[in-house]
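Why does this matter for the project? Reviewers at the last site visit asked to see concrete outputs rather than summary tables. In response, this paragraph embeds two records directly. Each consists of the residue sequence and, immediately after it, the corresponding structure tokens. Nothing has been edited or filtered.
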Amino acid sequence: MAQNLTESSHDRQNILNNRYALQQAEQRMEPGGTFYDGELVFTKQQVMTLFEIGDATIERYLASHDDELKSNGYQVLRGIKLKEFKDLAFGTLINEGTKTSVLGIFSFRAVLNLGMLLTESEPARILRSHLLDIVLDVMAEKSGGHTKYINQRDENFLLASFQEDNYRQLFTDALDNYVEGNKWKYGNFTNLIYQSIFKENATEYKKILKLAKKDKIRETMYSEVLTLIASFESGIAHEFEASSKRKGGKLTQREAKELISGFESHPLFKPLITDARTKMASRDLCFRDALHEKLEAYIQAVPEADFEKFLGEKSRSLEEQLSDPETLAVFKRLKDR
């Protein structure tokens, strides 16, 4: 994870979208505040005290990062909502002005957001350090300390892996039957598919994820990436067969490579490739601290749903999934088709 949270908006949002990290932060920090509308909130004066900054500093960040702070829980109270909050605060708003007609309040999430932005506050610097430690602790606890295979905690991984394995066989059979070449063509053409989808060959991918020689690449891939690879393999196998029959003989490797190149630029696959690149680049940076430099333009904040997918109650290790009778029954039905 990038250490300079003050500069990286997607790294800030990755922390703020991780409700497990936020829960731990609230428990460890005991920040005070007031419960309003079902959540812990803080007035501007309380935030100024917390971070040892002045009113002008807060106003400057509210102006420069308005959308970000509002999306993470900063709001301005007026009218009935302000009256309700004043009644809850029991006189603690003395420094805010008792006759104020508007009042800005920060959710705990927005307080953390501001703390990750402030460059002129020592308490904010300390908070950022604590947050990074909390995120690492939560990730280790929830993943069992094995982020290399965090992709397998997705309940869709097993099915995607099973289906991809079947389409992989179709692809290798098509290479045997319809494309000229020696045994090295399997690895070469697999790399062409990888490069079409996520711009890396197998060696580059292994290096980025720090995989051992014996590690199988596809066991580390997200279900969405496996499904897209399966679509490529199935479609390319079909095109190999059709082109070979039109030609009346096996395709040369050059002809086969041109077919694969066409898949990458096909309008049908473009949005799917973009989605796969975004998920792979963003998740690997967040969960595995692995940067795919060739996909850097696709990095976004990981949505809250992904933290539930890989760290939440529904996420389970592969061993737990394989011991589930219902899961085994599904795979038996697929195998018997």
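We now turn to the second protein, recorded in exactly the same manner.
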Amino acid sequence: MDTTPAEPLSRAAGLSWLVSRIRPRTGRTLVAIDGVDGAGKSTFAGDLTTELTDSGLTVIRISLDDFLNPVSVRHAQGRTSPEGFVADSYDYPRFVEDVLEPLGSEGCGRYRAKSYDFATETPLNPPWQVAPDTAVVVVDGMFLHCERFYDERGRKLWDFSVWLDVPCAESVRRLAERDGSPSDPDDPRIRRYVEGQRRYIERRNPARRADLVIDNG
């Protein structure tokens, strides 16, 4: 892999950098778009998908939010627990089994794009799909640089990973505008989420682990 940019790039420059490195690849390519809630992950993933599709590549979009745990697991450590938010939000084993393993460079290509519907709090078992041998898999979600996405030798399972860098106050403001949640990062009603994401950043330092950091503030 080429040397990664030494400094965060703008959104446009970051997209260009990423597309220029994905296009020459053969086989399947796994791309992670990581960031705090409100960082613009799904929007950036959508823009990347458009750029790659316009280049003639087949793109498969996956969101980690479609692999949530049931509410009983998500809140097993308490409804206000930051630790529980980081550790228990997602069904990582199912995500690895249904997405990462089959869509990796040596995978069989038989995958499922979802396992849970948050709106109805319902488990899902959609039909299996088959990916072509050459495709780009773009995954957006939180905590994509956590230890579960590294192998036993400490190597990332992603071919490329992106960290969208957004100040906490800005991400909370965006969420308040989008969802009507509190706009103060210190509001106790959102402590579970804000503090959980701060702990993830402190422990995993995703900006250092990512191949590309985008200034998305």
